[in-house]
Fold each of these.
Amino acid sequence: MLFQRLASKVSVLAPAKINLFLELLEKRPDGFHELETIMVAVSLFDRLEVTPTEASDLILDCAWDSGQLARATQLGHSSQLLGDLPPQDSNLVYRAVKLLQTEENVPHGARIALRKCIPSASGFGGASSDAAAALFAASQAWNLNLPIDRLSELAAKLGSDIPFFFYAGQLGSGQAIATGRGENIEPFPGRRLDLVLIRPPGGVSTAEAYRRCQLPEVPDSSNKLLASLKSHQSTSMPRQLTNRLTRPAREISTRIDQLAKICEQLDVVAHQMSGSGSGYFAICRNRVHARRVAAKLQAQNVGMVFPVTTCGLQSLRN
């Protein structure tokens, strides 16, 4: 995440993520899956601001970014392309700040403004990134200044993907391998990637995708991909990527197969669904290639299209 502490508030840009690799290892007794995934933060951002107040109330103002909403409306499927925004009490941002307030016995409250650009139900991690940003910003706004380990401990109570975002943007490399339910994070210094994200009309329920998935007899290995990301050699990226949730997502949304066929014809380095879908991504050779691929995808009216780069300390320096 990218953050700025101002006189009266803390402002954070919360990045999206993609899963370059996602394998399921076993079903746990608690109903979750033991998994291994390589996550990468990318430069598509929600904007969150936390203003501390003397009163103890928490007030969340959550809406789509006006430019993003206009763009989706122009494409003719705004609700299908952007997804739903949950009401305050069930919004992960509100629940995250409420948890922090309770656990740290904070007597004050906050006004929270969230303007979203990351489509929901896309596998791009928008809600999880927003929750991480909210925990970080509220900790700063209330002068708690909690360490990342403590924020990650709180985040893991709310969602498996959330701790990853404490290692992105100004806080880390933005590339990590995650295990357990996804909450055990091992960051690594990977190379910059230029990509195109696609959000087709209609999302995929994460719970439904996991309910339909089947465990592999022999799990795929992430070793080759991990070595490629650490090598800084663009020619070493494997063309075939793994996401064990692709098969059940294809049963739910026919858009996944359509996007795979289109990307196959675009001369990209590799392509795959992110998370539980329906969001899709294509890895491109460089920034110019990414813009060219994005233009071709937009011309085919496949949905919302975003040319992006990886979002970590190394990317920010380049």
Note: The chain has eleven helices and eleven strands.
Amino acid sequence: MTASDSRASQPGGSSSYVTFSLADETYAIDVLQVQEVLKLTEIAPVPGVPDYILGIINLRGDVVTVIDARRRLSLPVREPDEASRIVIIDVDNQNIGILVDSVAEVVQIPAASIDPAPAVGNDQTSRFILGVTSSNDGLTILIDLNKLLSDEEWASLREL
């Protein structure tokens, strides 16, 4: 059972999400999949990988692949700055870093306030949108990390 399945079986409940910014929009990922948040560090490029893979970092002796969230979500690319962060996530017992513009906070989002993903974008980008919620601060797009990459892409990451 995934975290998403768990929420679905608890009508009326709420879950915690880590929110982050990309291209002036707010995104959220399940806090249970976040291992830690790092300041930007040196990322060693790996030749011959897809453009959304920035490279690898050494995280206390473990090699962690870092994905550019902007490229993966088909957003305009920009250079990282002081606010940029690498969010270390756990997907199927594999730690992956995702580079985001900034990390905001942990929020509680009631399951009842999550609307289905709108039919926008293409299948490549819309498949990892879990849903959308709105508040006084604007819209927050919930990302399904398990669908951020295809099965083949996850398998190729394990080989790096």
Note: Strands lie at 14-22, 25-30, 34-39, 53-59, 62-68, 85-91, 94-100, 102-110, 129-135, 138-143.
Amino acid sequence: MPLESRRPARGHEPVLADEVVRLLAPRAGETVVDCTFGAGGHARRLAPALGEGGRYIAIDRDPEARTWFADLADDVVCETRFIHANFADALPRLLDQGLRADVVLMDLGLSSMQVDRAERGFSYSRQAPLDMRMDPARGASAADLVATASEKDLAGLMRTYGEERYARPIARAIVRRRAIEPITTTGDLVEIVRSAVPTPALFAGGHPAKRVFQALRIVVNDELGSLERGLASAFALLAPGGRLGVISFHSLEDRMVKRFMRDRAQGCICPPDMPVCGCGHTAEGALLASKAQRPRQAELDRNPRARSALLRGIRRLGEDDR
């Protein structure tokens, strides 16, 4: 059975896999840097194209990803390397080592191995310790955050990172509850959210705790800070002609990715009525598609978790392009 047609590790379904392969078009002998290896679903579609002369570098801050990486390394003929780190920290180190990549991929979503394992605390549908750390050995957990942040800060982060309409009453309910007993489980937090929002809101717009969990997860893992730093490093890592693809899952991520790529693809910024360019600004990249790529209905039927996914891509220009 061809490697790319095998079912990804233990049920994990990589999102937009066909679109990733088409947009990033890996070729024999190239170097691919996978910033969020996860269970290796995209790797099993990209790595076979690299051949014996190619190289696949996998990065992930979740230590469990190393197990899936070992499975992949046994199955492919290209050179492989695993880096246990946040991609925002690993990419500058690769740059310092003189590496240049032909393809860089970032999949910003949680993998099924994280969502489906209750003990990781990412799911509002399962009773578990309130953790949410991508690397369980590092940093403060979501339980630490709800135990120490002020009511004002809790409301602010839920509003900013979760776009939660009822951020203030939920934050107030958290502070009241923790004064009585610690909030240590996902079930505790879901119960608090349910108690704080109006009854009609419990039955509209999906699970009532969805946005609160998203906000806490973003803060606990510094997801937007990592993305901002990682985008700049990823683009700098690209060889001329290299392609960067990013899969985002909510508007905060996508706005950041869209703005970053638009700015790199922007040429002259002089007013239209200027007869001669005076800014000297030239494009560093070219968008791989004019619009974000979305999952097709067939993929949504197989994997409903892909419904929010958006893929954007950019190619780094070389001297021959200018």
Note: DSSP finds 13 helices and seven strands in the chain.
Amino acid sequence: MNRLILHILAVLLLWGFPAFAAEVVVVQGERLAPFEAAFHGFKDTAGVRSVERFVLSDLRGADVVRAVREARPRLVLAVGRDALARVRDIREIPVVYVMVPPSATADATGRNVTGIEMDVPAERYLSLCGNGLGGKRVGIIYNPAKTGALVQEARQAAERLGITLVVRRADDPREAVRELSSLKGKVDTLWLLPDPTVVTRDTMESFALFSQQNRVPVVAFAAKYLQQGAVAAIEVDPADMGRQAGRMARRILDGASPQAETPEHPAKTRLKVNHSVAQHLGITLKE
């Protein structure tokens, strides 16, 4: 009932009721648990007097950008890809984003937009591949248009760590499967990038089969792929990312320039392991 009342009040606000001033307006894509955790983490650390929140999934069709402008906040927090896409054209108010993948922020950051990238540094993955799994030859399949920047970061990290990257390019899922076959006998570990061209439901079956047949562990970017054959995944901590965004917002509210606040990687990550796959491959990993 409370949620219904809040929804009605929010709709009334968006369709013509006078807006009231809030120090920070939060635009959140959905009421997903990770988004909620990020939002509460933000509130815990930003130290703001008043927060107004608009959840896009509750307000379909509403002019959220107009409502944000009428609320005249000192800062906007965008939680999720859809939220950032909705507010990215606001230029007169600092915008901090969180829970947004790098692929969705490439054209958004600039004079007034910055935030916490929802990714894990390449060095963290490669350290797991090299030290945790003993793989000195790490295979990557990627679409340059989707994850080219991440592969460039990976090349630099691999050089520092003494790891050899075996890289293949693919412009569609079928090509990704063909390139996967070419990695047989040439890699010790496969690293799945958050690349929607390469990682699909169908290609995951091929990655899992390749892993079993060649005894090559697969490292993924999200725990859901553990159930599809990956041996390990490194995840972000949404609540901690929210706290990180809160600290960034606090600095901006205290006078720092958003442009000077460069986007940050998550400060805290979590290792998840599929122990059945690890046992099958003869690997010992601790979470």
Note: Residues 231 and 278 are 6 Å apart (CA to CA).
